[in-house]
Amino acid sequence: MSEQKEHNPTMVEHEYSASEIQVLEGLEAVRKRPGMYIGSTSSSGLHHLVYEIVDNAIDEALAGYCDQITVEILEGDVIRVTDNGRGIPVDIQAQTGRPALEVVYTVLHAGGKFGGGGYKVSGGLHGVGASVVNALSEWLEVRVHKNGQIYEMKFSRGNITQEMKIIGTTDHTGTEVVFKPDPQMFEDTVYDYDTLHKRMREQAFLNAGVRILMADRRPGQEQEETMHYEGGIREFVTFINKNKTPLHEQVIYMSGTRDDSMAEIALQYNDSYNEVIVSFANNVHTPEGGMHEEGFKRALTNVLNAYGKKANLLKGDDKVSGEDCREGLTCVISVKLTEAQFEGQTKAKLGNSEIRTLVNNVVSDKLEQFLEENPAVGKAILEKAMMANRAREAARRARESIRRKNALEGATLPGKLADCNERDPALTEIYIVEGDSAGGSAKQGRDSRFQAILPLWGKMLNVEKARADKVYGNDKLQPVITALGAGLGDEFDDSKLRYHKVIIMADADVDGSHIRTLLLTFFFRFMRPLIDRGYVYAAVPPLFKLTRGKTTRLAFSEEERDKISAELRGDNPNAKVDISRFKGLGEMDAHELWDTTMNPETRTLKRITMEDAVKADEIFTLLMGEKVEPRREYIERNAFKAVNLDY
């Protein structure tokens, strides 16, 4: 009995065969230059291998032939991806005289995505996915269920180790790929479940009705989740907004098509002051936006201004800006098109200008209709935008006031800043230090050629609960804004940034953690490019000093303390090792602070990165926002991870 699947009614039913596999060039060079094909050989490239195989299954779903995908991490960090699509073609491919399955896995740029009619819309990386994964795997096995038979083929580092053969019979269709990444090619071959889970959750949201099982089968790490969202991107918006207070209950959903292109947009406003726009093209995340986001933003601003005039909420020449219209907005944009033009190998930005027109038209027509039919929602959105406009005007006045004050005083840098001598920002760093006493030690201990010190004092503003005008007027944040010199919010210009290392230096205790979190929230909400470009770091002061005789070592955790202690004792368990806990930064003298925390030769810095903007937004909202209950639940759920509360 064959498994029945619902097919996309808009697609013409046809057999997926070798005639639709087009060959453009061979597989050489992938192992020589893997970064060209998967971005890097770091953890991100390792996970990219899984995405490439899953993308092929998603392409089958887009074509209407697949509704179940299983992704498993097996023991030894082996990956298995199974789908119930049509199965990769196994008949002879005309150009090569070889089975299509072999061609797909051994020839670069071979696939059903180059005009052979296999797919109208595809997210796979220009058809190189399967062969690149094969080339970068220590071994790979593929089994295809098709024509009532199970076909199997095996490879090692791109070379065939078992020709395609029939190994059994089957009553369904689909493809199973099992591979082990090659340790010769990757810096690390250990998979992170959460990273894969996030990507699979996105795919489930973007492909309404497709059921994706993500599982970790490694001993001691077993976990799994099935993700299935009939509401598609509507449910994605609800998921992003789960810790926020919505301005209106209903998620606004719009969609439309033009020729072979399709766009869908889901949005909901909340009472925060931040915007979250997450966009995708052919199921691939476009973190740098592109034409689809441009079309959306333009239409949203025009529609809200037109509605404001019509509803008599905006008088005379009054209008709200694009930024005003997006305050408190959560939006997911998903477009699908035949010839997606991505800027850069990593597909960060969509370049198709025709998709801007499509998204603009969809939003212009559908949003106007929605607001007409839901005037209470329209009024709430407009009033929020108008309030944002007033706050922005107040922020502008605050900025002007600060500029005038600085001009009158003849000094633009804050008085507490001890600046460095070097003027090339690529060579300089600024330590933002908790407290005047630690600031004093840092000033004495620093290398003034390239290290600047800015002490902070008093309680800093939680910007998660404040608009831009309050931020500009805050006397605790103003020195940071002025010292960095690059502006704030939509005026932020990193070409004016005075230091390319912005280092937060706070005590390794609860108060220090709070200071770090407040500063990071500020940078994330108002100086986001600082984090995106990798300019923000956290200094890591040591917790313990261990001494035996003339040998002194530093430890940054209790585990490291115990390990170093054992090393210092060596073969003599009774040897005396002096262990002292480091004082707070303010109690260290200048020499200690330089040696332990500031000397580039010996210090430890943690770079703050933000690969997943949705997750970051969720965490900042959770920890720093208005809602108490979700924060309490999060802390209770994760308290066990805080083994040593003052570290």
Features:
647 residues; alpha+beta; Heat Shock Protein 90; Ribosomal Protein S5, domain 2; Rossmann fold; 3 domains; 8-stranded mixed β-sheet; 5-stranded mixed β-sheet; 19 helices; 35% helix; globular; disordered C terminus
Describe the protein in words:
With 647 residues, the protein is an alpha+beta fold. It folds into three domains: 18-227, Histidine kinase-like ATPase, C-terminal domain (Heat Shock Protein 90, 2-Layer Sandwich); 233-391, Ribosomal Protein S5, domain 2, CATH 3.30.230.10; 413-541 and 606-625, Rossmann fold (3-Layer(aba) Sandwich), CATH 3.40.50. 35% of the residues lie in helices and 22% in strands. The protein contains 19 helices and 27 strands. It has an eight-stranded mixed sheet with strand order 9-8-7-10-3-2-11-12. A hairpin with a 2-residue loop joins strand 15 and strand 16 (284-285). It is globular and about 75 Å long. The model is unreliable at 1-12, 113-119 and 641-647 (pLDDT under 50).
**Mind summarizing the main beta sheet?**
8 strands, mixed
**Quick one: CATH superfamily of the largest domain?**
Histidine kinase-like ATPase, C-terminal domain
What is the number of helical segments per DSSP (H or I, 4+ residues)?
Answer: 19
Shape: globular
How many DSSP E strands?
A: 27
Low-pLDDT parts are 1-12, 113-119, 641-647
